[in-house]
UniProtKB/TrEMBL annotation:
Organism, as annotated: Pontibaca salina
GO molecular function: aspartate dehydrogenase [NAD(P)+] activity; NAD binding; NADP binding; oxidoreductase activity, acting on the CH-NH2 group of donors, NAD or NADP as acceptor
Full protein name: L-aspartate dehydrogenase
Pfam family of the protein (one): Asp_DH_C
Family affiliation: Belongs to the L-aspartate dehydrogenase family.
Cross-referenced InterPro entries: Asp/hSer_DH_NAD-bd, Asp_DH, Asp_DH_prok, L-Asp_DH, NAD(P)-bd_dom_sf
Span of domain Aspartate dehydrogenase: 177-264
Gene that this sequence comes from: nadX
Keyword terms, alphabetized: NAD, NADP, Oxidoreductase, Pyridine nucleotide biosynthesis
An example Gene Ontology biological process: NAD+ biosynthetic process
Misc note: The iminoaspartate product is unstable in aqueous solution and can decompose to oxaloacetate and ammonia.
Gene3D superfamilies (UniProt xref): Dihydrodipicolinate Reductase, domain 2, NAD(P)-binding Rossmann-like Domain
């Protein structure tokens, strides 16, 4: 089945760039697009409205999940934060709407993991975890079928990319003169404590060694301009090192541009007859 009707949840930096990119890469417009925003927001920001009209023949902006469920999109993509997955995830899945979530860190909470798994089963659909800002999930998930000895993830970002996170309490982000490790712990702790910065810790953990066995370091580094993600895997099948130097999105320095492109990929792989 080809994807013709898409729902995007959120109208922030990922959503805006997702629409911009889709407008360029779609060979033919979608039939319908519905964008779900917070209560009280029923029109799209002007730049998003223009991009949306290039992506789909019919565009609807809504602040009500019931509109999305009634519209029955082929796919919903969440790019709005943990609160949005809590607010909409179960109902989308229970209603049989395949759902891709950028905010994968929600699954670091076992209760939510269970609720969303049950909802997907009840709706006979799937909750899809995109690679997001990182890569190598294919080999990591394959190696998980053998013996994974260690999976270690390091996130290195410029100090300003950590503003508004608990890093502010751990270090003085404004006066760093060199790289500073402010978090070392499990992927579970990272994803829970850093909901806007460490979703990929959960993505990596869920593809591989699990939320408690996957180790995470987070570093504020005044000498970098990019969001640098490193994954080190030791296993019976292979030793793997992945290093991604992600460019930040124009609107949000916390978020890396590959996140946007990985969501575009989730759309495009449902539009063509050959999937890679
Ligand atoms: N897996 C990955 O690799 C990555 C995942 N992420 C996840 O994606 C999320 C979004 O990132 P980004 O676009 O950069 O963030 P932004 O802050 O730029 O945008 C978030 C948008 O979501 C909206 N929003 C928040 N809550 C709701 C809700 N309950 N219903 C509808 N809309 C809502 C916000 O609206 P308002 O302005 O009204 O608050 C805003 O428009 C992050 O919070 C993070 O969880 C981010 C980067 C990488
Ligand atoms: O985009 C990134 O660099 C990663 C990120 O914010 C997250 O995992 O939440």
């Amino acid at each position: 089945m080809t994807l013709n009707h898409l729902c995007i949840i959120g109208a922030g930096s990922i959503a805006a760039e997702l629409l911009d990119t889709l407008a360029h890469v779609l060979e033919a417009p979608l039939e319908r697009l519905i964008v779900l925003q917070r209560a009280g927001k029923t029109t799209l920001p002007e730049d998003m409205a223009q991009a949306a009209s290039r992506c789909a023949i019919t565009v609807q902006a809504s602040d009500n999940l019931a509109d999305v469920i009634a519209a029955r999109p082929d796919l919903a993509i969440e790019c709005a934060g943990h609160g949005a997955v809590h607010a909409y995830g179960e109902q989308l899945l229970e209603n049989g709407i395949e759902t891709v979530i950028a905010s994968t860190g929600v699954l670091a909470d076992d209760a939510w993991h269970d609720r969303l798994r049950r909802a997907a089963q009840a709706g006979q659909t799937r909750l899809v975890l995109p690679a997001g800002a990182v890569g190598g999930m294919d080999i990591l998930a394959a190696l998980q079928n053998g013996t994974l000895d260690t999976v270690a993830y390091t996130s290195r970002k410029p100090p300003h990319a950590w503003r508004g996170s608990p890093a502010e309490a751990a270090v003085d982000l404004d006066s760093l003169t060199g790289e500073t490790v402010f978090f070392e712990g499990s992927a579970r702790r990272a994803a829970v404590d850093y909901p806007q910065n460490a979703n990929v810790a959960a993505t990596i953990a869920l593809a591989g060694a699990g939320l408690d066995a996957t180790t995470v370091r987070m570093i504020a580094d005044p000498d970098v301009q990019a969001n640098i993600h490193q994954i080190e895997i030791a296993s019976d099948g292979a030793e793997v090192q992945v290093r991604i130097v992600g460019k930040p999105t124009a609107r949000n320095p916390k978020t890396s541009l590959p996140t946007v492109y990985s969501l575009v990929r989730e759309v495009m792989r449902r539009r063509g007859p050959i999937v890679s």
